[in-house]
Amino acid sequence: MDKNSKNDQVKDDKQIGCWAKFKSLFEGRGFDLEFEYNNHRTAVAVGDNNDGYKKIDDRKSVEKRTVSESSENSLEGELAGVINFYEQFSSLGDDTKDDVDVWRRSSGVRNRVSIRPSALLTNIIEENGECEDDVELNRSPPPANIPTALIYSPPEPLELLCVFPERTSRVCAAACSAVERAGGEARSLRCARETLDALRRDNDTRVPHVIVVDARQPQQLDALLLARAIRGTKNTQHVYLIAIVKKSAYLKDEFGVLAYLEAGFNRVMVETVNTTAWCAEVLQARSSAACSRAQIAATAALAAAADRCRDLVAITDDQQRILLTNKSWCRMLGWRLEEGPRPIHEAAGGEALRLATTGARDWEAPVTLRRRAAPDPIMLPCRGATIGLTKTTSHIVFVCEPSAGEGDRGRGSLHSIRRGSLDVRSVASDGLRRTSLAKLQGLPLEAPITKVISLLSAATEGAPPSTVACIERAVDMLRTSELYSPQMRDETKLRVEDPIATDLIGALLSREQVNQNLVYMQGNANVLSSRRSSNDSTVVRSQTNRTNIKHKTTGQLRELLDTALSWDFEIFRLEDLTRGRPLAHLGLALMGGRFDVCAALECDERTLLHWLTVIETNYHAVNTYHNSTHAADVLQAVAYFLEKDRLKNLLEPVEAAAALISAAAHDIDHPGTSSAFLCNARHPLAILYNDVSVLESHHAALTFKLTLNDDRVNIFKNLDRDTYKTVRHHVIDMILATEMTKHFEHLAKFVNVFYAKSSGSKEDGMHTDEPLSLDTTALSQPENVLLVKRMMIKCADVSNASRPQKFAMEWARRIAEEYFLQTDEEKAKDLPVVMPMFDRATCSIPRSQIGFIDYIIIDMMEAWAAFIDMPELVNHARSNNQHWRELDEAGVTTLADVKRVQRQNAIQAPPTTTAEPTTEE
Ligand SMILES: Nc1ncnc2c1ncn2[C@@H]1O[C@@H]2COP(=O)(O)O[C@H]2[C@H]1O
To answer: Of the residues 209, 238, 626, 876, which is catalytic?
Structure first.
């Protein structure tokens, strides 16, 4: 073959392929086509009428062109007409850049579809992989409308139903005999009622391929009404409906067919008694019916697949109105399946929508979805595609992936929302990226929360809507990563009613405090507290100042220490008697004596004494509250709790030792200001710990640093590696648990584990007037014992509010003084004020205590008191609360007021004698 003829052959092949493609675009769709080729002022429409295919064009300026003489009065003929037209038009050359406008007209609605002849060829070449550089190729071909493998229509005998009021109609007889000749079966009925009854009865078994309705005698049979009724019957979408009209009526009105088409007929046919014509007609009709039946069945299969997948699926039309949503979508967003078309913007937003509406073919980007039952939208990863038979979009598909844990596939948190959009095709070309994503998905990672969410989601299947709504709310809550972060109840109410309580609770619980404050802070570096220094130099100080105490007690001190395990232990008397060294004395009495920590740690008493001394020395005596008396108080509370049966039987000696060590050291080197203050002041500790758990991290780290630094104080030196690791783990965990920003996290975990089965609890599981029913079976699991230990040190840390009144009052005075000093310092150094209400001139101490007890103490003490059987914890808290209320009403406000009340109360207090600790080297 020479070069030219080879080129011609290629061109012919391309054109044949082009026509095939063109044909396939419209094949079997059953609508009228109209073409307009603007450049050449050629306009041609193809429509079926009684005379076969012809051009319908009344525009004077347009060159007329006959489409097809050979076309038959059928869909095939229509396509033949189309192809014929295209043949003529393609002679213009396939490199023309002019678009051909194809007007798709269906049921009277005209939709414009632009086709460029060269693009048709290009598409075919693109599919064959021959052309890679064309700009057109950047837009992937639209995904196939329905995969051909799904469109399976088994050959089946033709079924015809004739509806003719006239029993002896010759037209009906001709149709029936044509069907029999074609090997099919025909039935005839006389009226609309019989027809509809038959269709309803035969619904799933014998729905005919073709129904022919006699429309010639409207007085006897209203064909239009019947067509509408048939289309309203289940499973009749694919039935090919033919209306038989009189030739005279047909020729009278060229647009008369429209009424029939709109009523649901597929075809209007002039009456004929010619059996051959009927035979051709019914065969074509059967082919069309079988084809649309297969397509509808395939669509139903795809919709069923969408309904059963866990992803949220929505399909819109080209106007972005949602046409179809699957069950997951409805369930999660609170939609009803039967809801009519709604704009997608009502439900979705974000990058995915932007891409969808700017013509992307295939994308992967986050979508925000609005839920009807919840105010906050959710953000999910979304994969989408636009579907269209040509470059024009017909549908947009959104597939949104529920967050981690929703599906069975164990996607886990790794499959989180990707920020920004991701071009799927660029990923496909990026083998590495793809592989690593696949690897991540394959990892056997599944958190318990993932399983919980899966179980809950499964429980919504078939559940009543109210239950589904509850479960979905619960799942939404579980999905948040800050599962236990504090949410202040009635916060607005509190804010309005009591700004002091709001200030205090906010400062204690909020992790945002620092960030908020940082906003206000401008260039205030080097504003460290001169009042109380706090940095690593304390290590040096502790070593140089180390003083070993010879435990020489007076009779009074000995007597006092004998009461060390009572809840009204006179801690301030101990402070006086030991001249500010209560921790070493009490520590030695409790840790060295009653709890025999030395035996548990295999160390001698001297090492323990040295350790206590070093620890105590590293508390700041200058602090009014966070000094070694507070440490001794917390140690005493922990010792008291450890004596309770529940804990005595639960903890190993080494665990009890770890608890006492944690209590003694839990606030070591506390600077007397809060972590928020340190962050705002850019303190080296805040820098070191990245503003996260600054003080608690420092307390734990310094405890080990001081302990391990010197063999003479190293109470762990004889422990084997594993025991040391265990003790270290427990001590660190307990000290970190005293961080108040995690207060509700620890409390909620404890309550959920040990009171999970209590009835009548409110939504948050804690604040309830119903008595809590304790369930301690969970204690068999070590991780739950950890919760107990955390709760123990937490309760001990703030136990001052649950002590008898005189102690509670003194502690309240001390902490208020410390808060005021912090505020003074913040103001002096132009730092953000963490608790502005804690101003010594204006703050009401009683009201701060009422807030503290109401919002921090009561819930926690109730949970803990029931657990260790110590009702006095709650009783004291309530009675202190009441006392503060009375003082508030009596006008007690400032520190001076509180001191005055204390003096009045202390008139009968017995005098104290001082202990004489001696030093030895
Ligand atoms: N009686 C009280 N009134 C107000 N705040 C308190 C009281 N007792 C303890 N706190 C606060 O609770 C916190 C518990 O952890 P800290 O010891 O670090 O610091 C403590 C104080 O900030």
So the answer is: 626
